[in-house]
Amino acid sequence: MKRIVLFLIVITVLSIAGDLNAQKTIIPKESIRFRVIANSNQEEDQQLKRKVSTNLQKQLTTLLSNTNSLNESRNIIKNNLPLLENNINRTLKEENKKETYEINYGNNYFPQKEYKNVIYNAGNYESLVVTLGDGMGENFWCVLFPPLCLLEAEKSDDKVEYHILVKDIINKYRKNQNDIS
Questions:
Q1: Are 13 and 91 contained in the same domain?
Q2: Confidence of residue 108 (pLDDT cuts 50, 70, 90)
Q3: What is the number of domains present in the chain?
């Protein structure tokens, strides 16, 4: 019994240490972020934000699919801002919306964000930001270079659930202990 308890303590410490290290992961300094901010948190505005971000992601995936460097990605985005604006205009027209918007490529503020158990610090970052209407709603954001969100956009809609084997064993052990009690 002592061996099992010792084993579980060691496993728990290793799992916690692994979780702490995961929380320290950050987006590389050499990156370009992407953000679409909704007019408000009303469902209609959030749906429009999702449509705009999805359509822009598809276009950006095509534009940036063969880029290998920050400078190359930067130049492609800058040179294609009119195409991106056309994409937004087309989306607004398809959705029968007369929403105003602003598109900005440059150094923009991002609030702190936690995504997939990783904390990204607040600050000013090189980014492509689209603000719909008053820009008072929740936002979509990801990383264009390296192409983190573009890779996710290409994936299927299948949900993937990740497990840490050690945590699963500990949780199973705890459940069994609770069932016995």
A1: no
A2: very high
A3: 2
